[in-house]
Amino acid sequence: MPFGSAPGGAGWREGSWVSRHIIGADDALAVVREHLSRSRRCRSTGRTAVVVEEFIAADASAQVHSRARGRFEEAVALVRAAHGVAVGGVDPMGATDTYLVRRTDLNILVEWFADKYRQLVPTPAGLAERPLPEALRDRPCLTERRIRDMVRIGLVAEAVMGRPVRMELAWKNGVVYVLWCEAAG
Predict the structure, then answer these.
(1) Most confident of 30-34, 65-69, 123-127
(2) Can you list the alpha helix ranges (DSSP code H) found in 4-115?
């Protein structure tokens, strides 16, 4: 479903059971009712859980994989970052900066800076694509400190969960928000 086109302000639907970027209490309630109705129609015997999270109109957002898949000489974490609100840590309409960070000492081993020309921003009707301000186009989305902090948070989550994690974080006015975290693969 394209951004901003869903009825009732739902900006993006991820499968039949997850809705993201719901705007306002009325829209959130409509989505909860829809999911509960679907659960009854499917005669689900399991319990239904509804999670409502605060929407963060982020200055930058990123995703971390606490243990990157692939053949690397050392154990590394993978970080992908975008300016503004990014769905799943990666802006589907634009490019992301990508980093490989050594897990043992948080040293940034590899960094790829993307050519960035647009970003996702919140509007009253949902998310919209906007040109990225020229001053941000050739600048990294995150500072080295934030990249290391993000990997550190991922490693702590991995230790708690007992397996590698994938998580999304957002920054707004210098404050970090953990948006979600799940066990990877």
Answers:
(1) 65-69
(2) 25-41
